[in-house]
Amino acid sequence: MEMRIEADSIGSMAVPAKAYYGVQSLRAKKNFNITGRPMHPAFIRNLVKIKKAAALTNQNLHLLEEQKAEAIICACNEIIEGKLMDQFIVDSIQGGAGTSANMNANEVIANRAAEILGGDKGDYTLIHPNDHVNMAQSTNDVIPSAGKLTVLELLPRTIQELKRLHSALLKKSNEFDHILKIGRTQLQDAVPMRLGQTFHAYASMILRDIKRIEKSQEEVMVLNMGGTAIGTAINANPEYLSQIVPNINKVCKTTCIQAGDLIDATQNLDGFVQVSGALKTCAVNLSKLCNDLRLLSSGPRAGIGEINLPPKQNGSSIMPGKINPVIPEVVTQVAFHIIGNDMAITLAAEAGQLELNAFEPVLFYSLFESIETLTGAVATLVDNCIADISANEERCLELLEKSVGISTALCPYIGYERSAELAKKSLKTGIPLKELVLMETFLTKEQLEDILNPAAMTKPEFGQGKLNGCFNLGYLGGTSQF
Known about the structure:
Helix content is 57%, strand content 6%. The protein is mainly alpha-helical. Strand 5, helix 8 (238-252) and strand 6 (257-258) form a beta-alpha-beta unit. Helix 2 (41-60) packs across helix 6 (139-175) and helix 6 packs antiparallel against helix 7. The N and C termini lie far apart (97 Å).
């Protein structure tokens, strides 16, 4: 392979002659053989978009020669369109607070811009990675800003999928609204409810997640661009300082603002923790939802069996006919992973010292992964599970009628202790609760039809109005107030 020799402050190194990356990128590749995964494509694009915005700003201020600026902008456009992505060779997790990622972009852009101007790769006399491509910038404002722009690019699809999930759950809520079932607390029979209410509660939970994630986007719309090394804007023209973020917005089609305190924004990563926290909360809720789906569909003969999940694949290599709830299972696994990523993100943000946080690479690696895996998990949950859930209405009614959960409705009439006695007796003897109440209390059959009406118990207005005063008279053996 034909090579060229490049030098940096560490020394000289042979670089493949056809490579657009340079010595600093290659050195980083050798140093950081960590994940085997390149930087996220969206992160690379946003990093290059910042370079384009900087070149435009420096060009407008006549700080960068017109010809050089145009070549840099042209090179940036090619990369943004998807070209030369294989030239970004630095591992996602790297030391140096992202300096290697920044220089990888600087070198690729510089070499391509030099080609455009008729020069050769590796000859930085025409376009220099630091002096021209990195003009008025530092790794320390470019990298966190690229990370924020990437989060803003990735989150909308996550929100879109969550909105689809919310709609799917609401649809099932309406479909199942007429189906009575027994509610459960601590996995024990509680009181009647409607299956539609179960799914409506899930939808309400997801709606909160959508709002949290949407709100968290505000945290990453504040950029420290122009702050350069530590936020003091050293080497940045005052006019550049005022124009760089507006130009980034033009290039990226965003509405970001410049941080009011650039020193704070350069060293602190709490905004990313906020985003991760919203994702983690959503993951926790999704896992709870999926745990419920697995319980409610358990069986098909020896479990709860109130709902059916769509069969997606064989569940066993040895047990014929077994079908497992694979979609809820995979979503829960994604939730575990996101929770773990959140811990890594939390520790990375906490570990920053003084004027810079060196641990942005692992934070971005974890955060981008959380966003994308959550998005994929929600999509498969909607398409391969929620949309085709069906209800076993007869099974729901069977379990409801066998339960003594309806005894709770007797408390205002005959008291808690008497209700508990009758419930225990019903469980022990197998005699239906209604029969015991008719045999052993003053309540009539007509009254019980109202009091122990499962459908009425599922509505907030149940137990209001006509119950007033009944408890004291009934419990003391007096006459009914009906």
